[in-house]
Design brief:
The complex is a heterodimer of chains A (461) and B (104).
Chain A lengths: L5 E4 L3 H12 L5 E3 L21 H5 L3 H14 L4 E3 L2 E7 L2 E6 L2 E6 L2 E4 L3 E3 L12 E3 H11 L1 E2 L3 E7 L1 H12 L3 E7 L5 H9 L3 H16 L4 E3 L2 E7 L6 E7 L5 E5 L2 E6 L1 E3 L2 H5 L4 E4 L4 E4 L12 E3 L8 H20 L9 H21 L4 H5 L6 E3 L4 E2 H8 L7 H8 L12 H12 L29
Parallel strand pairs in A: 1-2, 1-7, 2-3, 7-21, 9-17, 11-12, 11-17, 12-13
Antiparallel strand pairs in A: 4-5, 5-6, 8-18, 14-15, 15-16, 19-20, 22-23
Helix pairs in contact in A: 1-3, 1-9, 4-5, 5-7, 6-10, 9-10, 12-13, 12-14
Chain B lengths: L9 E2 L7 E6 L2 E6 L4 H6 L6 E2 L6 E2 L12 E4 L4 E3 L10 E3 L10
Parallel strand pairs in B: 2-8
Antiparallel strand pairs in B: 2-3, 4-5, 6-7, 6-8
Classes of the chains: A alpha/beta (461), B mainly beta (104).
Chain lengths: 461, 104
Protein backbone atom coordinates (compact mmCIF):
# COMPACT_ATOMS: atom_id res chain seq x y z
CA UNK A 1 0.00 0.00 0.00
CA UNK A 2 1.34 3.44 -0.92
CA UNK A 3 2.11 5.73 2.00
CA UNK A 4 -0.89 7.98 2.55
CA UNK A 5 -0.24 11.71 2.80
CA UNK A 6 -1.03 12.69 6.37
CA UNK A 7 -0.49 16.29 7.47
CA UNK A 8 -0.76 17.87 10.90
CA UNK A 9 -1.02 21.62 11.52
CA UNK A 10 0.39 22.61 14.91
CA UNK A 11 3.34 21.22 16.89
CA UNK A 12 1.90 21.70 20.37
CA UNK A 13 0.68 18.94 22.69
CA UNK A 14 -2.07 17.69 20.33
CA UNK A 15 0.02 17.78 17.16
CA UNK A 16 3.01 16.14 18.81
CA UNK A 17 1.00 13.25 20.27
CA UNK A 18 -0.80 12.74 16.96
CA UNK A 19 2.50 12.62 15.06
CA UNK A 20 3.98 10.19 17.56
CA UNK A 21 1.11 7.75 17.17
CA UNK A 22 1.12 7.97 13.36
CA UNK A 23 4.86 7.28 13.30
CA UNK A 24 4.38 4.30 15.62
CA UNK A 25 1.92 2.91 13.06
CA UNK A 26 4.50 3.24 10.28
CA UNK A 27 3.45 6.54 8.70
CA UNK A 28 5.63 9.54 7.88
CA UNK A 29 3.46 12.61 8.55
CA UNK A 30 4.20 16.19 7.59
CA UNK A 31 4.00 18.54 10.59
CA UNK A 32 3.51 22.22 9.79
CA UNK A 33 3.95 24.82 12.54
CA UNK A 34 4.37 28.57 12.67
CA UNK A 35 6.92 28.57 15.47
CA UNK A 36 10.65 28.00 15.18
CA UNK A 37 10.48 24.94 17.42
CA UNK A 38 7.87 22.56 18.78
CA UNK A 39 5.87 22.85 22.00
CA UNK A 40 3.00 25.12 20.99
CA UNK A 41 2.38 28.07 23.29
CA UNK A 42 2.02 26.36 26.64
CA UNK A 43 5.17 24.26 26.31
CA UNK A 44 7.04 26.75 24.16
CA UNK A 45 10.79 26.20 24.24
CA UNK A 46 13.21 28.98 25.03
CA UNK A 47 15.71 29.84 22.26
CA UNK A 48 19.15 28.23 22.04
CA UNK A 49 21.59 29.81 24.50
CA UNK A 50 19.04 30.29 27.31
CA UNK A 51 19.94 28.36 30.45
CA UNK A 52 16.93 28.26 32.78
CA UNK A 53 15.95 24.69 33.73
CA UNK A 54 12.48 23.30 32.85
CA UNK A 55 11.30 23.70 36.47
CA UNK A 56 11.88 27.45 36.21
CA UNK A 57 10.03 27.65 32.90
CA UNK A 58 7.07 25.32 33.35
CA UNK A 59 6.69 25.04 37.16
CA UNK A 60 4.39 22.19 38.15
CA UNK A 61 4.08 21.20 34.47
CA UNK A 62 7.82 20.74 33.98
CA UNK A 63 7.49 16.95 33.85
CA UNK A 64 4.82 17.08 31.16
CA UNK A 65 6.72 19.70 29.17
CA UNK A 66 10.00 17.78 29.15
CA UNK A 67 8.17 14.53 28.31
CA UNK A 68 6.49 16.21 25.34
CA UNK A 69 9.75 17.75 24.15
CA UNK A 70 11.56 14.41 24.48
CA UNK A 71 8.83 12.72 22.45
CA UNK A 72 9.17 15.35 19.78
CA UNK A 73 12.95 15.09 19.69
CA UNK A 74 12.59 11.32 19.18
CA UNK A 75 10.39 12.05 16.13
CA UNK A 76 12.97 14.21 14.36
CA UNK A 77 13.94 12.50 11.12
CA UNK A 78 10.86 10.26 11.29
CA UNK A 79 8.43 13.03 10.44
CA UNK A 80 8.74 15.86 7.97
CA UNK A 81 8.82 18.97 10.16
CA UNK A 82 8.18 22.36 8.61
CA UNK A 83 8.75 24.96 11.34
CA UNK A 84 8.20 28.69 10.67
CA UNK A 85 5.55 27.72 8.15
CA UNK A 86 2.08 29.25 7.94
CA UNK A 87 -0.96 27.19 6.90
CA UNK A 88 -2.96 30.04 5.37
CA UNK A 89 -5.77 28.38 3.45
CA UNK A 90 -7.66 25.11 3.36
CA UNK A 91 -10.20 24.33 0.68
CA UNK A 92 -11.19 21.60 -1.75
CA UNK A 93 -8.90 19.10 -0.02
CA UNK A 94 -5.76 21.22 -0.42
CA UNK A 95 -3.79 22.87 2.37
CA UNK A 96 -1.83 25.98 1.38
CA UNK A 97 1.34 26.58 3.36
CA UNK A 98 3.77 29.48 3.24
CA UNK A 99 7.28 28.20 3.89
CA UNK A 100 10.09 30.71 3.58
CA UNK A 101 9.15 32.91 0.66
CA UNK A 102 7.14 30.29 -1.20
CA UNK A 103 3.62 28.96 -0.85
CA UNK A 104 2.97 25.26 -1.35
CA UNK A 105 -0.35 23.65 -2.33
CA UNK A 106 -0.50 20.36 -0.44
CA UNK A 107 -3.21 17.77 -1.13
CA UNK A 108 -3.70 15.23 1.65
CA UNK A 109 -5.40 11.95 2.47
CA UNK A 110 -5.85 13.01 6.08
CA UNK A 111 -5.28 16.33 7.80
CA UNK A 112 -5.29 16.92 11.55
CA UNK A 113 -5.79 20.53 12.62
CA UNK A 114 -4.19 21.14 16.03
CA UNK A 115 -4.20 24.91 15.80
CA UNK A 116 -4.54 25.76 19.49
CA UNK A 117 -6.06 28.85 21.01
CA UNK A 118 -5.39 32.47 21.86
CA UNK A 119 -6.52 34.53 24.84
CA UNK A 120 -10.17 35.57 24.86
CA UNK A 121 -10.19 39.33 25.27
CA UNK A 122 -12.33 42.24 26.25
CA UNK A 123 -11.58 45.47 24.38
CA UNK A 124 -11.45 47.73 27.43
CA UNK A 125 -10.95 51.45 26.90
CA UNK A 126 -7.18 51.97 26.64
CA UNK A 127 -6.33 48.37 25.71
CA UNK A 128 -4.13 49.51 22.82
CA UNK A 129 -1.72 51.43 25.09
CA UNK A 130 1.89 50.20 25.11
CA UNK A 131 2.31 48.10 28.24
CA UNK A 132 -0.99 46.25 27.77
CA UNK A 133 -0.48 42.68 26.58
CA UNK A 134 -2.48 39.48 26.61
CA UNK A 135 -1.97 37.05 29.50
CA UNK A 136 -0.50 34.56 27.04
CA UNK A 137 1.79 37.29 25.72
CA UNK A 138 2.92 38.15 29.26
CA UNK A 139 3.72 34.48 29.82
CA UNK A 140 5.62 34.16 26.54
CA UNK A 141 7.72 37.24 27.38
CA UNK A 142 8.76 35.53 30.60
CA UNK A 143 9.06 31.94 29.39
CA UNK A 144 10.67 32.44 25.99
CA UNK A 145 12.52 35.74 26.52
CA UNK A 146 13.17 35.99 30.29
CA UNK A 147 11.48 39.41 30.34
CA UNK A 148 8.68 40.91 32.41
CA UNK A 149 6.24 43.04 30.40
CA UNK A 150 6.94 45.97 32.75
CA UNK A 151 8.31 47.06 36.10
CA UNK A 152 5.04 46.88 38.01
CA UNK A 153 2.67 44.43 36.41
CA UNK A 154 -1.06 43.90 37.02
CA UNK A 155 -3.03 40.92 35.76
CA UNK A 156 -6.66 41.46 34.80
CA UNK A 157 -9.23 38.99 33.57
CA UNK A 158 -10.49 35.66 34.78
CA UNK A 159 -9.60 31.99 34.54
CA UNK A 160 -6.78 29.75 35.68
CA UNK A 161 -4.17 31.41 33.46
CA UNK A 162 -4.71 34.70 35.33
CA UNK A 163 -3.41 33.18 38.56
CA UNK A 164 -0.80 30.99 36.90
CA UNK A 165 0.90 33.85 35.07
CA UNK A 166 0.73 36.13 38.12
CA UNK A 167 2.37 33.42 40.25
CA UNK A 168 5.03 32.81 37.58
CA UNK A 169 5.85 36.51 37.50
CA UNK A 170 6.09 36.69 41.29
CA UNK A 171 8.34 33.63 41.35
CA UNK A 172 10.61 35.07 38.66
CA UNK A 173 11.17 38.22 40.71
CA UNK A 174 8.83 40.63 38.95
CA UNK A 175 6.78 43.10 40.95
CA UNK A 176 3.13 42.06 40.69
CA UNK A 177 0.88 45.01 41.51
CA UNK A 178 -2.30 42.93 41.88
CA UNK A 179 -4.53 40.28 40.38
CA UNK A 180 -7.88 41.73 39.31
CA UNK A 181 -10.41 38.94 38.73
CA UNK A 182 -13.81 39.79 37.27
CA UNK A 183 -15.26 36.55 38.69
CA UNK A 184 -17.30 37.04 41.87
CA UNK A 185 -15.72 35.44 44.93
CA UNK A 186 -18.60 32.98 45.42
CA UNK A 187 -18.59 31.61 41.88
CA UNK A 188 -15.85 29.10 42.63
CA UNK A 189 -17.93 27.34 45.26
CA UNK A 190 -20.82 26.84 42.86
CA UNK A 191 -18.39 25.24 40.41
CA UNK A 192 -16.95 22.77 42.90
CA UNK A 193 -19.16 19.77 42.03
CA UNK A 194 -17.92 19.88 38.41
CA UNK A 195 -14.34 20.85 39.22
CA UNK A 196 -14.08 17.95 41.66
CA UNK A 197 -13.64 15.81 38.53
CA UNK A 198 -9.94 16.74 38.64
CA UNK A 199 -8.88 17.04 42.29
CA UNK A 200 -5.17 17.30 41.43
CA UNK A 201 -5.82 20.39 39.33
CA UNK A 202 -7.93 21.93 42.10
CA UNK A 203 -5.00 21.41 44.46
CA UNK A 204 -2.64 23.10 41.99
CA UNK A 205 -5.00 26.07 41.83
CA UNK A 206 -5.02 26.36 45.61
CA UNK A 207 -1.22 26.19 45.65
CA UNK A 208 -1.03 29.06 43.16
CA UNK A 209 -3.25 31.20 45.38
CA UNK A 210 -1.12 30.34 48.40
CA UNK A 211 2.02 31.36 46.53
CA UNK A 212 0.49 34.70 45.56
CA UNK A 213 -0.53 35.27 49.18
CA UNK A 214 2.99 34.51 50.42
CA UNK A 215 4.40 36.89 47.82
CA UNK A 216 2.09 39.60 49.17
CA UNK A 217 0.19 40.03 45.89
CA UNK A 218 -3.27 41.56 46.44
CA UNK A 219 -6.07 39.58 44.80
CA UNK A 220 -9.31 41.44 44.12
CA UNK A 221 -12.32 39.35 43.10
CA UNK A 222 -15.55 40.52 41.55
CA UNK A 223 -14.00 43.64 40.05
CA UNK A 224 -15.45 45.63 37.17
CA UNK A 225 -12.64 47.09 35.06
CA UNK A 226 -13.43 50.59 33.82
CA UNK A 227 -10.42 51.57 31.73
CA UNK A 228 -6.70 51.17 31.21
CA UNK A 229 -5.35 54.64 31.95
CA UNK A 230 -2.40 56.31 30.22
CA UNK A 231 0.50 57.68 32.25
CA UNK A 232 1.43 61.38 32.25
CA UNK A 233 3.08 61.10 28.81
CA UNK A 234 -0.16 59.72 27.36
CA UNK A 235 1.86 57.20 25.40
CA UNK A 236 1.85 54.16 27.71
CA UNK A 237 -0.05 52.47 30.50
CA UNK A 238 -0.06 54.19 33.88
CA UNK A 239 -2.83 52.41 35.80
CA UNK A 240 -6.08 50.47 35.78
CA UNK A 241 -9.33 52.09 36.91
CA UNK A 242 -11.78 49.56 38.32
CA UNK A 243 -14.77 49.20 40.58
CA UNK A 244 -14.30 46.87 43.51
CA UNK A 245 -16.85 44.25 44.52
CA UNK A 246 -18.12 46.64 47.24
CA UNK A 247 -18.83 49.33 44.64
CA UNK A 248 -15.92 51.66 45.43
CA UNK A 249 -13.83 52.88 42.52
CA UNK A 250 -10.04 52.66 42.62
CA UNK A 251 -7.04 53.14 40.36
CA UNK A 252 -4.27 50.55 40.52
CA UNK A 253 -0.88 52.03 39.73
CA UNK A 254 1.00 49.86 37.20
CA UNK A 255 3.03 50.24 34.00
CA UNK A 256 2.07 46.93 32.42
CA UNK A 257 -0.90 44.61 32.38
CA UNK A 258 -1.70 41.13 31.09
CA UNK A 259 -5.34 40.65 30.03
CA UNK A 260 -7.30 37.51 29.36
CA UNK A 261 -10.55 35.68 30.03
CA UNK A 262 -9.87 32.00 29.28
CA UNK A 263 -9.24 31.05 25.69
CA UNK A 264 -10.62 31.44 22.22
CA UNK A 265 -10.26 28.44 19.91
CA UNK A 266 -8.35 29.09 16.70
CA UNK A 267 -10.88 27.75 14.18
CA UNK A 268 -10.27 29.73 11.01
CA UNK A 269 -8.86 26.86 8.91
CA UNK A 270 -11.76 24.64 9.98
CA UNK A 271 -14.14 27.35 8.84
CA UNK A 272 -12.42 27.74 5.47
CA UNK A 273 -12.63 23.97 4.97
CA UNK A 274 -16.40 24.16 5.32
CA UNK A 275 -16.78 22.41 8.68
CA UNK A 276 -20.06 22.69 10.53
CA UNK A 277 -19.96 24.64 13.81
CA UNK A 278 -22.05 24.49 16.98
CA UNK A 279 -22.43 27.17 19.63
CA UNK A 280 -20.82 25.99 22.89
CA UNK A 281 -22.73 27.49 25.82
CA UNK A 282 -20.00 26.93 28.41
CA UNK A 283 -17.35 28.88 26.48
CA UNK A 284 -19.85 31.13 24.62
CA UNK A 285 -18.15 30.57 21.29
CA UNK A 286 -18.68 28.61 18.09
CA UNK A 287 -16.65 25.40 17.87
CA UNK A 288 -16.21 23.01 14.93
CA UNK A 289 -18.51 19.97 14.95
CA UNK A 290 -16.53 16.76 15.56
CA UNK A 291 -17.25 13.24 16.73
CA UNK A 292 -15.78 11.75 19.92
CA UNK A 293 -12.45 11.09 18.19
CA UNK A 294 -12.05 14.38 16.35
CA UNK A 295 -13.51 13.59 12.90
CA UNK A 296 -15.10 16.63 11.31
CA UNK A 297 -17.92 16.55 8.79
CA UNK A 298 -15.40 17.17 6.00
CA UNK A 299 -13.96 13.86 4.76
CA UNK A 300 -10.28 13.50 5.64
CA UNK A 301 -10.32 16.40 8.08
CA UNK A 302 -9.73 15.82 11.80
CA UNK A 303 -9.25 18.19 14.73
CA UNK A 304 -7.63 17.99 18.14
CA UNK A 305 -6.68 20.20 21.04
CA UNK A 306 -7.71 23.67 22.15
CA UNK A 307 -8.44 24.65 18.54
CA UNK A 308 -11.62 22.59 18.74
CA UNK A 309 -12.34 21.83 22.45
CA UNK A 310 -10.84 24.01 25.19
CA UNK A 311 -9.57 21.31 27.55
CA UNK A 312 -6.03 22.53 28.12
CA UNK A 313 -2.69 20.91 27.36
CA UNK A 314 -3.25 17.44 28.82
CA UNK A 315 -6.66 17.24 27.17
CA UNK A 316 -4.94 18.19 23.93
CA UNK A 317 -2.45 15.33 24.26
CA UNK A 318 -5.36 12.88 24.58
CA UNK A 319 -7.26 14.48 21.70
CA UNK A 320 -4.18 14.30 19.47
CA UNK A 321 -3.87 10.57 20.12
CA UNK A 322 -7.59 9.99 19.49
CA UNK A 323 -7.49 11.91 16.20
CA UNK A 324 -4.45 9.95 15.03
CA UNK A 325 -6.18 6.65 15.88
CA UNK A 326 -9.22 7.81 13.91
CA UNK A 327 -6.99 8.65 10.93
CA UNK A 328 -5.36 5.20 11.09
CA UNK A 329 -8.71 3.43 11.28
CA UNK A 330 -10.17 5.44 8.38
CA UNK A 331 -7.10 4.82 6.20
CA UNK A 332 -7.13 1.10 6.96
CA UNK A 333 -4.00 0.96 9.14
CA UNK A 334 -3.73 -1.10 12.29
CA UNK A 335 -3.39 0.96 15.47
CA UNK A 336 -0.06 0.61 17.30
CA UNK A 337 0.06 -1.94 20.11
CA UNK A 338 -1.45 -0.73 23.37
CA UNK A 339 -3.68 1.96 21.87
CA UNK A 340 -6.86 2.19 23.91
CA UNK A 341 -9.24 4.80 22.50
CA UNK A 342 -12.00 3.92 24.97
CA UNK A 343 -9.74 4.72 27.94
CA UNK A 344 -8.64 7.97 26.28
CA UNK A 345 -12.27 9.01 25.75
CA UNK A 346 -13.09 8.30 29.41
CA UNK A 347 -10.21 10.45 30.62
CA UNK A 348 -11.32 13.23 28.39
CA UNK A 349 -14.84 13.12 29.81
CA UNK A 350 -13.53 14.02 33.27
CA UNK A 351 -11.62 16.90 31.69
CA UNK A 352 -14.79 18.13 30.01
CA UNK A 353 -16.62 18.19 33.38
CA UNK A 354 -13.77 20.23 34.81
CA UNK A 355 -13.86 22.61 31.84
CA UNK A 356 -17.57 23.28 32.43
CA UNK A 357 -16.76 23.89 36.08
CA UNK A 358 -14.11 26.44 35.14
CA UNK A 359 -16.61 28.34 33.02
CA UNK A 360 -18.82 28.67 36.13
CA UNK A 361 -15.97 29.54 38.50
CA UNK A 362 -14.51 32.17 36.17
CA UNK A 363 -17.42 33.37 34.03
CA UNK A 364 -17.03 35.49 30.91
CA UNK A 365 -18.49 38.88 31.91
CA UNK A 366 -20.80 39.25 28.93
CA UNK A 367 -22.68 42.16 30.55
CA UNK A 368 -19.46 44.13 30.94
CA UNK A 369 -18.64 43.60 27.27
CA UNK A 370 -22.14 44.49 26.13
CA UNK A 371 -21.99 47.75 28.11
CA UNK A 372 -18.60 49.02 26.93
CA UNK A 373 -18.72 52.78 26.24
CA UNK A 374 -19.33 53.86 22.63
CA UNK A 375 -15.88 55.44 22.31
CA UNK A 376 -14.05 52.15 23.13
CA UNK A 377 -11.82 50.91 20.30
CA UNK A 378 -13.17 47.40 19.64
CA UNK A 379 -11.04 46.72 16.56
CA UNK A 380 -7.35 47.28 17.32
CA UNK A 381 -6.35 46.71 13.69
CA UNK A 382 -8.33 49.63 12.28
CA UNK A 383 -9.33 51.64 15.37
CA UNK A 384 -13.10 51.09 15.05
CA UNK A 385 -15.26 51.93 18.04
CA UNK A 386 -18.07 50.15 19.85
CA UNK A 387 -20.31 53.04 18.78
CA UNK A 388 -19.62 52.33 15.11
CA UNK A 389 -20.41 48.65 15.66
CA UNK A 390 -23.68 49.58 17.42
CA UNK A 391 -24.57 51.84 14.50
CA UNK A 392 -24.26 48.87 12.15
CA UNK A 393 -26.60 46.94 14.48
CA UNK A 394 -29.11 49.77 14.71
CA UNK A 395 -29.25 52.32 11.90
CA UNK A 396 -27.81 49.89 9.33
CA UNK A 397 -29.81 46.93 10.68
CA UNK A 398 -27.11 44.23 10.48
CA UNK A 399 -28.69 41.09 11.97
CA UNK A 400 -25.44 39.11 12.37
CA UNK A 401 -21.69 39.53 12.74
CA UNK A 402 -20.68 39.10 9.10
CA UNK A 403 -23.08 41.80 7.90
CA UNK A 404 -21.91 44.04 10.75
CA UNK A 405 -18.32 43.35 9.64
CA UNK A 406 -19.15 44.47 6.12
CA UNK A 407 -20.69 47.70 7.46
CA UNK A 408 -18.28 48.54 10.27
CA UNK A 409 -15.10 46.60 9.33
CA UNK A 410 -14.95 45.15 12.89
CA UNK A 411 -13.36 41.72 12.31
CA UNK A 412 -12.11 42.64 8.83
CA UNK A 413 -8.68 43.91 9.84
CA UNK A 414 -5.49 41.94 9.64
CA UNK A 415 -6.15 39.91 12.81
CA UNK A 416 -9.46 38.78 11.25
CA UNK A 417 -11.29 39.19 14.51
CA UNK A 418 -8.97 37.02 16.61
CA UNK A 419 -8.69 39.81 19.18
CA UNK A 420 -12.11 41.50 18.89
CA UNK A 421 -14.46 38.93 17.33
CA UNK A 422 -16.03 37.37 20.43
CA UNK A 423 -16.45 40.71 22.18
CA UNK A 424 -17.80 42.27 18.99
CA UNK A 425 -20.48 39.57 18.82
CA UNK A 426 -21.55 40.35 22.42
CA UNK A 427 -21.82 44.06 21.63
CA UNK A 428 -23.83 43.40 18.47
CA UNK A 429 -26.14 40.91 20.22
CA UNK A 430 -26.79 43.30 23.10
CA UNK A 431 -27.51 46.13 20.67
CA UNK A 432 -29.98 43.89 18.83
CA UNK A 433 -31.47 42.56 22.07
CA UNK A 434 -30.88 38.92 21.11
CA UNK A 435 -28.82 36.06 22.59
CA UNK A 436 -25.22 36.07 21.33
CA UNK A 437 -25.64 32.80 19.40
CA UNK A 438 -28.25 34.50 17.21
CA UNK A 439 -25.74 36.94 15.73
CA UNK A 440 -23.78 34.01 14.31
CA UNK A 441 -20.15 33.16 13.76
CA UNK A 442 -17.55 35.45 12.25
CA UNK A 443 -16.30 33.84 9.03
CA UNK A 444 -12.58 34.02 8.27
CA UNK A 445 -11.08 34.62 4.87
CA UNK A 446 -7.89 33.32 3.29
CA UNK A 447 -5.14 34.12 3.92
CA UNK A 448 -5.83 33.65 7.63
CA UNK A 449 -2.78 35.82 8.31
CA UNK A 450 -1.17 38.42 6.07
CA UNK A 451 1.39 37.09 3.62
CA UNK A 452 3.45 38.66 0.85
CA UNK A 453 1.74 38.75 -2.54
CA UNK A 454 5.02 37.56 -4.07
CA UNK A 455 4.62 34.25 -2.23
CA UNK A 456 1.61 33.43 -4.39
CA UNK A 457 3.23 34.00 -7.78
CA UNK A 458 4.28 30.40 -8.28
CA UNK A 459 2.61 28.11 -5.82
CA UNK A 460 4.44 24.81 -5.61
CA UNK A 461 2.99 21.37 -5.06
CA UNK B 1 14.26 67.75 23.86
CA UNK B 2 12.44 65.37 26.19
CA UNK B 3 14.45 62.50 27.64
CA UNK B 4 13.61 59.18 25.99
CA UNK B 5 10.92 57.29 27.93
CA UNK B 6 12.19 54.20 29.76
CA UNK B 7 11.97 50.92 27.86
CA UNK B 8 8.82 48.84 28.26
CA UNK B 9 10.21 45.38 28.98
CA UNK B 10 12.38 44.46 31.94
CA UNK B 11 14.91 41.64 31.71
CA UNK B 12 14.75 39.12 34.57
CA UNK B 13 17.69 36.91 33.67
CA UNK B 14 19.55 35.14 30.87
CA UNK B 15 21.85 38.18 30.69
CA UNK B 16 24.90 36.04 29.86
CA UNK B 17 24.02 35.96 26.14
CA UNK B 18 26.22 37.68 23.57
CA UNK B 19 25.23 41.22 22.58
CA UNK B 20 23.78 41.94 19.14
CA UNK B 21 24.19 45.43 17.67
CA UNK B 22 21.34 46.86 15.60
CA UNK B 23 19.98 50.28 14.68
CA UNK B 24 16.76 51.71 16.06
CA UNK B 25 15.42 54.87 14.42
CA UNK B 26 18.91 55.75 13.27
CA UNK B 27 20.52 55.29 16.70
CA UNK B 28 22.80 52.40 17.69
CA UNK B 29 21.11 49.91 20.04
CA UNK B 30 22.03 46.62 21.67
CA UNK B 31 20.05 43.43 22.12
CA UNK B 32 21.03 39.91 23.18
CA UNK B 33 21.42 36.80 21.04
CA UNK B 34 18.11 34.89 21.14
CA UNK B 35 15.99 38.02 21.53
CA UNK B 36 13.02 38.44 19.27
CA UNK B 37 12.88 41.73 17.47
CA UNK B 38 10.05 42.70 19.83
CA UNK B 39 12.25 42.09 22.87
CA UNK B 40 15.19 43.83 21.23
CA UNK B 41 13.15 46.96 20.55
CA UNK B 42 11.09 47.08 23.75
CA UNK B 43 14.12 46.66 26.02
CA UNK B 44 15.41 49.84 24.33
CA UNK B 45 12.20 51.77 23.67
CA UNK B 46 8.57 52.06 24.74
CA UNK B 47 6.76 51.33 21.47
CA UNK B 48 7.14 49.41 18.21
CA UNK B 49 5.06 51.43 15.84
CA UNK B 50 2.39 54.05 15.39
CA UNK B 51 -1.14 52.95 14.57
CA UNK B 52 -1.89 53.69 10.90
CA UNK B 53 -5.26 55.00 12.07
CA UNK B 54 -3.87 57.83 14.17
CA UNK B 55 -4.77 56.52 17.62
CA UNK B 56 -1.22 56.47 18.98
CA UNK B 57 1.72 54.16 19.61
CA UNK B 58 1.51 50.36 19.79
CA UNK B 59 3.87 47.88 21.40
CA UNK B 60 2.56 44.49 20.28
CA UNK B 61 -0.06 42.56 22.19
CA UNK B 62 -0.28 38.77 21.89
CA UNK B 63 3.39 37.82 21.25
CA UNK B 64 2.21 34.66 19.46
CA UNK B 65 1.67 35.83 15.92
CA UNK B 66 -2.11 36.16 16.18
CA UNK B 67 -2.85 39.89 16.60
CA UNK B 68 -0.59 41.36 13.86
CA UNK B 69 -0.05 44.41 16.07
CA UNK B 70 3.76 44.23 16.21
CA UNK B 71 4.65 44.96 12.60
CA UNK B 72 7.81 46.99 12.19
CA UNK B 73 9.63 48.21 9.12
CA UNK B 74 13.27 48.07 8.14
CA UNK B 75 14.79 51.18 6.61
CA UNK B 76 14.74 49.32 3.28
CA UNK B 77 10.96 48.91 3.49
CA UNK B 78 10.66 45.26 4.53
CA UNK B 79 7.85 44.51 6.95
CA UNK B 80 8.64 42.21 9.87
CA UNK B 81 6.42 40.72 12.56
CA UNK B 82 8.51 41.62 15.60
CA UNK B 83 7.23 38.90 17.96
CA UNK B 84 8.33 36.04 15.73
CA UNK B 85 11.45 37.43 14.10
CA UNK B 86 14.83 36.90 15.80
CA UNK B 87 16.99 40.01 16.05
CA UNK B 88 20.11 39.87 13.87
CA UNK B 89 23.21 42.03 13.84
CA UNK B 90 22.98 45.06 11.58
CA UNK B 91 19.17 45.21 11.32
CA UNK B 92 18.02 48.78 10.77
CA UNK B 93 14.53 49.25 12.23
CA UNK B 94 12.19 52.22 12.09
CA UNK B 95 9.43 52.66 14.65
CA UNK B 96 8.60 56.33 14.26
CA UNK B 97 7.43 56.29 10.67
CA UNK B 98 6.91 53.62 8.05
CA UNK B 99 8.98 53.92 4.89
CA UNK B 100 7.19 53.20 1.62
CA UNK B 101 7.35 49.45 1.10
CA UNK B 102 9.58 48.11 -1.65
CA UNK B 103 7.45 46.78 -4.50
CA UNK B 104 10.16 44.61 -6.04
Amino acid sequence: MAQPRVTIVGAGPAGTRAAELLVAAGLHPLLVDEAADNGGQIYRRQPAGFRRPPAALYGTEAGRATALHASFDALRGRIEHWPESLAWNLRDGVLHVLRGERSHALPFDALILATGATDRLIPLPGWTLPGVFTLGGAQIALKAQACAIGRRVAFLGSGPLLYLVAAQYAKAGAEVAAVLDTAPAGARWRALPLMAARPALLAKGAALLARLRRAGVPVHRGVTPLRLCPDASGARLGGIAFRQADGREAVLDCDASGLGWHLRAETQLAGLAGCGFDFDRASRQWLPRIDADGRSEVPGLYMAGDGVRLLGADGAEIAGRLAALAVLRDLGFAPPAGADPAALRRRRQAMDRFRRGLAIAFPWPAQLVAGLPDETLVCRCEAITAGELRRSAGALDAPEVNRAKAFSRVGMGRCQGRMCGLAGAEILAAARGVPVEEVGRLRGQAPVKPLPVAALREEEA
Amino acid sequence: MNPAPPPLLRRLGEAHRRPVAFTLDGQPATALEGDTLLTAILTNASALRLSEFGDGPRAGFCLMGACQDCWVWTEAGTRLRACGTPVTAGLRIMTKEAPWPSLG
